[in-house]
Amino acid sequence: MTTPHDPHPHSLSHVLSTPPVLSVPFDPRPSEPLAEEPSVDFKGYLNTLYESRWLIGTITGIITVVAVLYALLAKPVYEANLMIHVEEESPTASKNILSEASSLFETKKAAIAEMELLRSRMVVSRAVDNLQLYIEVRPEYFPVVGSWFANQNGGALSQPGLFGQGGYVWGGEKAEVSVFEVPDSWLKRDFTITARPGNRYRFSGGGQSIAFDATVGQRYRVPTPAGLVEIKVDRLHANPGARFRIKRNSRLGTIQNIQSAMVITEQGKQSGVIQVKLQGENAERIHALLSEIGREYMRQNLARKTEEAEKSLAFLNQQLPILKRQLEQSEDRYNQFRNSHGTVDLREEARMSLTQAAAARTRRMELVQKKTELLARFTEDHPVVAAINRQRKEVESEIDAIDTRIRKLPVMEQDEARLTRDIKVKTDLYTALSNTAQQLRLISVGRVSNVRLVDAPIAPERPIKPNRPLIVALAVVTGLFLGTLIAVTRKAMRGGIDDPAKVERLLRAKVVYASIPHSLNEDKLMRKVKGEGVLPLLAQILPEDPAVESLRSFRAALQFSMPHFRNNIVMFAGPTRGVGRSFVTVNFAAVMAASGKRVLLIDADLRNGRLHRYFGVSREQGLSLAVGGAEPVEGFIHRNVVDNLDFIPTGALPSNRSDFLLHLNFSTLLETLSPEYDLVLIDTPPLLQAADAMVVGARAGAVFLLARAHVTTDAEITESVKRLNHAGLSPQGVLFNNITYAIGQSRTPFQANPIGQLKYAD
């Protein structure tokens, strides 16, 4: 509980008012509050990235290697394209305000219809049939890497097989098959064509017992229980033993796959320019396919435009010979009549009647012709055809009336009028039909389609996929991002403190005696340790290591503060395991001994003590036997394990570890040994896992907490201080271990007020 005069009742710690030593001025006022931690700790994130540099580098390296392998082994993908321009049917049509306004809301354009026609089965199926794309033939490459090696071979033939086994090909082997039909139940099955000497091959596979030899260039039909197998291999460019995989796909499935693969877009807004793209692994194949689709589309488009004229011309070509014969027959009869009766001079009325009759019959024949043409497109019930029928009835009535009038003429005049009329009618009809046929021929020849092929497909020279530089660059960026994300996530989940200043902000006092940097030399030395071998003592092997230098700084601060302690016993305790307590304790003991001080190191961690491994001694003769009073203390002290340093190991680990250190002999042991040394240093189990540290701390003159960067959390520190305070103990300060300095960060050891003690406010 805080006292009434405490100016900071909510602080976790305060500086003792113990008079300082030497000439350091003492200020009884409490220390100024430390600056608050910034909302965004850029330095902390930088430290995290620097500490996790190997993790980030490893993740980046793995992803980059995978990306490089993919970029090298992935099959190249090529792209071919064509461009078509669709023109409006009536580009010179007059425009007005209404037509221009309606164009703003027009949603159905000619280009849209042509885009759908390009993708239609009518066009694609012809291209598939012409190129026989449902037959798939490919060389049998070695899995994963075989195709890559084949691409590097420059198209030369290879020796089939791997170490003389199998028929894998490694070069530019090719096979061309023009006919391959199998029963429906065998579709999409892989069959094998194996090259043989003498321009022959063997057909087998498909999970069936079928197998036969054949000659290249000949067509074979082989009956099987499932149906007929038909095959013709036109060309086989391979050495004997090379194998090819052949598969007959569904025709409909092939058409649908091509329709799905085609990317058809209109360039610009309502421009009428259509671009068609097609991607595939075979550059020649997609070029041939897209070229065939373009040709077939243009042919069908033009045929659609001239279809009506061609149908009418075909009808007229059938009728013209018949009319010509009829006209010749009429002329022959008229000539015979004149030869037999001489020339007849008809009266004006007869000539007028004949003229009217001829005109009426001409109109009737024209109506018949027009009706015939209309029936090619419409039915008898169509309004246009019905109107023609009504006109024809009117003409028939007119003809009947004229015929009645002509019958009143003399018989000879009637005969002449009839013959002359037949000639005139047939002549006019034949002439009209001949003119119409000639016009239709001109239309068929000169008709131009409203679409034109602007850019024909060109065989691609370079693949568009994979883009190897881009893949590698994205892999590096992705690796760095994932590595950074994992490092930051690990730090957030771990929640460890990464800056000694955060400890002081947490405890509201300058209590960090020293910050001990991470030692790369210690890592190298520890990697050389095998099994239960001797652990390296860094302060003795590499005394100039930065971690050892920071312990020397702590030595100076401790020597300054020791006159104020009630005894020369110092205890190191950590909140949990893994904070580097053993490393700090044993190396600090060696640093103190190197300064000429007589130091006793006691391993009081009766649960997992391992300090004996630093000196290569056994733990059996140690603290547990000394406390038990089995033998004199002198028998358990290992003298001069390092110059001026004596050591007492844990001894045989007792069964009642929780209560063992409460034995009165432990206090007697410390009281006996303390006067013989300048410093007694004790290593204890973790504070938050066992009560042993509180028992030892009650007999120590100073207690120091150990915190490890990125491992020890705020809650662990505050909980450790609270437990020590509840036991009547005030930690002297904190040692911040294993700090990692980022690039450009100062490596000066962090120090604070050397006489601070921590108390937990109730």
TrEMBL record:
Membrane topology qualifier: Multi-pass membrane protein
Boundaries of every AAA domain copy: 577-690
Keywords assigned: ATP-binding, Cell inner membrane, Cell membrane, Coiled coil, Kinase, Membrane, Nucleotide-binding, Transferase, Transmembrane, Transmembrane helix, Tyrosine-protein kinase
Record carries keyword Zinc-finger: no
Main location: membrane
Superkingdom of origin organism: Bacteria
Entries under InterPro entries matching the protein: AAA_dom, Bact_polysacc_biosynth/exp, GNVR, LPS_length_determ_N, P-loop_NTPase, Wzc-like_C
Catalytic activity: L-tyrosyl-[protein] + ATP = O-phospho-L-tyrosyl-[protein] + ADP + H(+)
Coiled coil: 299-340
Localization per Swiss-Prot or TrEMBL: Cell inner membrane
UniProt-listed SUPFAM superfamilies: P-loop containing nucleoside triphosphate hydrolases
Sequence intervals crossing the membrane: 54-73, 470-488
Protein's name in the database: Wzz/FepE/Etk N-terminal domain-containing protein
